[in-house]
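G., the chain you wanted modeled:
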Amino acid sequence: MLVLSRKSQEAVVIGGSDGFHRMFRVKVLEIRGANVKLGFEVDADVPVHRAEVRERIHGEAGQSDYPATI
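Predicted structure as C-alpha cells:
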C-alpha cells in the first residue's frame, strides 16, 4: 500500500503515461477536522464506488481487500 500525505487542493495522479493510457486523479478538496473530502477524475467508463457499495454489487461481503469504509 502506498501512503501519501497531501494538503488541501493537492492531488495524486495515477496512470496517463506510456503503456497506461487512462488517468486517475484524486484531489483533496477540503480538510475539516478529521474529515477529508476527495474529488476523483477518471474516464466515464471506469466504475468508482465506495468499498461497501462495490461489495454489494459483486456479492463479496466480508471478502474485500478494501477498508470497510471509504
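The chain has a mean pLDDT of 82.

Shout if anything looks off.
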